[in-house]
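hey so i finaly got around to running the thing on Aryl-phospho-beta-D-glucosidase BglC (GH1 family) from Pedobacter zeae. pasting the sequence first so u can double check i didnt mess up the copy paste, my clipboard has been acting weird all day
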Amino acid sequence: MFFKKSLLYILLLCGVSVTGFGQGFLKASGTKIVDGRGQNVLLRGIGLGGWMLQEGYMLKITKEAQQYRIRERITDLMGPKQTQEFYDAWLANHMRKIDVDSMKRWGFNSIRLPMHYNLYTLPVDQEPVAGKNTWLEKGFALTDSLLNWCKANKMYLILDLHAAPGGQGNDLNIADRDPSKPYLWDSEANQEKTIALWRKLAERYKNEPYIGAYDIINEPNYGFSNPEEDKNGTKEKVNAPLRKLMVEITKAIREVDQQHLIIIEGNGWGNNYNGIFPLWDKNMALSFHKYWNYNDQASIAHIIKARDEQQVPVWLGETGENSNVWFTDAIHLLEKNNIGWSWWPLKKIGFNNPMEIKSNPNYDALVKYLNNGGNKPKDSNVYSGLMELAIYSRLENTIIHHDVIDAMIRQPFSNETKPFKAHLIQNKSIVYAVDYDLGKNSFAYFDTDTADYHTSTNKRSVGNRGRIYRNDGVDIAKDSLQYEKYYVNHIENGEWLQYTVNVAQKGTYTLKINAAAENAAGRITVLIDGKTVVKEVAVPNTGDAKRFATFEIKNVPLKWGKQKIRVLAATGGYNFSYIQFVK
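ok and heres what it spat out for the 3d tokens, dont ask me to read them lol
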């Protein structure tokens, strides 16, 4: 209780709103984003990557992974009619009201919508009349539905032009860019279409306070001065074309909408603001993107400096794709500095996000073909695999990673641990190794490799090497011999796992540990509520790291009710599947 009161006091001192959704339009007030009542608003959101714009990695596609190429290659396999049917099903299933309802319930207050321009208007080279804009109802209707779901939940919706006409950079997948066609930057027609699209959006949503902001160009990454050697614009010193276009977009928006907050992003994937200042509008915020670096004050010093010098709010518009440890540390750092955030993405085929879309055998075969070639899959199998994938993208068919949500919403300001699953201990009850408590590293578990910091260290370190089941640093593998069974592997000296259990009957128990080891070096220590009850019991050699066998630790006293059991690797080198409690 003292901690909660202290946190509330700190937030109030910092001017941070703790009341949730406010009233009226979001706007800039000095270095803060505030609502219509002038209250500080701390945005906690997620971007809907993969919905309107599929980046190949979210679908496990690594070759020719721009959306337009994925679509062309699928069309070659099963024809345009069935391809259109898949994309219609994908848009209808991937994002629905149940998703927004769930996000609100989990603790998020905003959504960033990555828009693909081709859902709102035709590409320049497909316009029936050159210089004219054909408006497509599909994108606007999808946006209207999403906005209505946000309104129902009192959540802000931030519009993000993720794929601009022509593409805004050399990272081709991000903007679904076709390099054979003119860039956004070398095509006046593409720039005019971009400006016109923003004017159209602003005209449509000018009176909608639940539209939180306009994020006008996602992740520009183009070397204007030296495109050969500075491909993604990270070293660009001038950024004149980027500034010019953003000024023109702002002018077009302000012709019809004087109320909405406008968010801009620097070059070099959002972080290079050289030449962008001074700002040209009084109601703006700066976005930056943050991936795979340390979560210390130095990692955000550049944007804090810009915030203070320009007297403008900042917002972390995109981050994620890492471990729970990284998520918790990043959010703690951001909120301590009164910086709101939007994670990336809500769902994909992959595990380090709130929802994981499950694959299927026919889709796996398609991915293998698209990435590696070989025998062409049957059109009926391609169709079946893709339609099943679209159905699997529905929230109720995904794997919901509550550990990821907990790491983002609760853990940044709490060291408390919670049970991952309810463990009622009766005679012969089993607790699986992978079902250790929810909580921070060093509190719910301890692992020596917890996150990927490769942009700081130039060395990749993935945390959970298996990239499966949970998103902490604990290494987890799937048991190939048992359906939906997992075990902890790569256990190193000093690592431990904690389990909050509820014992139905006090007594002395035998712990049957199911483990596998190629040698007899491993040793286990067991602690209950912080006290050592068994010290350095040898893990038997089973002859193979995947050949599991049970050994016994006898005479372990358990009291009635809740207690915390820690299994410590005094010496690692073994794999751990489960504990069975025998009274």
